[in-house]
Amino acid sequence: MTPTSTDSMKTNLNEAGTHLKQAARDTGDALKGAAGAAGEELRLGKANLKSDLADTALAGIAAAEEAGHAAGEQVDMLMDKGRDLIESAAELVRERPLASFGVAFAAGWIIAKLGRSEK
Fold first, then answer.
1. In a domain, 36, yes or no
2. Cα–Cα distance, 101 to 106 (Å, whole number)
3. What percent of the chain has pLDDT over 90?
4. Residue 3 lies inside a defined structural domain of this protein
């Protein structure tokens, strides 16, 4: 007996169904593999993020320590300049005591005058 068109159609539909089932199984396997790989990538990314954040914190702490040292150096420089200025003023007073007294008196008088005029 020769196969009829209906029989051929049924055979082709069965074959298509078999291929469709295999495609569904392959798709499920691919999705499981992709999910596993994505999970692994997420774990790796999380570990890298933690490492980078820890490095950032350490670098920030080191920068803060250096800022403290730099501020100390600046204070020391300002103190040295202040001492130099005081020494220079003391030397000027020793060299010209009368002129220094006159300048101090005039500055005091001007400051007092300005203080009274504001009231």
1. yes
2. 9
3. 65
4. no
> What was the pLDDT predicted at 119?
54
Is it the case that residue 79 has pLDDT exceeding 60?
yes
Alpha carbon separation from 82 to 3, 37, 77, 89, 94 (Å, rounded): 113, 67, 9, 11, 18
Alpha carbon distance 98, 105 (integer Å): 10
pTM over 0.70: no
What does DSSP assign to residue 118?
Answer: T
Q: Determine the structural domain holding residue 61 and report its residue range.
A: 9-117
Identify the three-state secondary structure at position 4: coil
CA angle 2, 10, 5 (to 5 degrees): 40
Average pLDDT value for residue range 87-112: 89
Q: Is residue 2 part of a domain?
A: no
